[in-house]
Amino acid sequence: MHSQATHQMRSILRLPEVIQITGLSRSSIYRLESLGQFPARVKLSESASGWRSEEVQEWINSRPLASKKVVAK
């Protein structure tokens, strides 16, 4: 039996959701995708595509944390 969380992890995200989740702009998402640095879209229909939510989440989890740099005076 699948839990609600498992079901949510296997959904397809449309562009506005990917923008909201990642904080990236539309152009950054497409640029990173074309460079192979962001998950590839899946074709949903003739005119619609989206991203697998688990792949987007894996990409987010793979990003390094921003470090706090101490500036010497």
List the helices and strands and how they pair.
Layout (H helix, E strand, L loop, with lengths): L3 H6 L2 E2 L1 H8 L3 H9 L7 E2 L5 E4 H10 L11
Antiparallel strand pairs: 1-3, 2-3
Description:
It is a single chain. By secondary structure, this protein is mainly alpha-helical. It has one domain. The protein is built from four helices and three strands; from the N terminus they run H-E-H-H-E-E-H. It has helices at 4-9, 15-22, 26-34, 53-62; strands at 12-13, 42-43, 49-52. Strands 1-3-2 form a three-stranded antiparallel sheet. It is elongated. The model has no long low-confidence stretch (mean pLDDT 88).
Strand content: 5-15%
For this structure, the quaternary state is single chain
Average pLDDT reading: 88
Label the overall shape: elongated
Roughly how much helix do the residues carry, as a percent range?
A: 40-55%
User: What is the string of SSEs from the N terminus onward?
Assistant: HEHHEEH
Distance between the ends: 59 Å
**Order of strands side by side in the largest beta sheet?**
1-3-2
Total number of strands: 3
Give the number of domains: 1
Rg calc: 15 Å
Main sheet record: 3 strands, antiparallel
Detail the poorly predicted runs: none
How many distinct helices? 4
Class inferred from helices and paired strands: mainly alpha
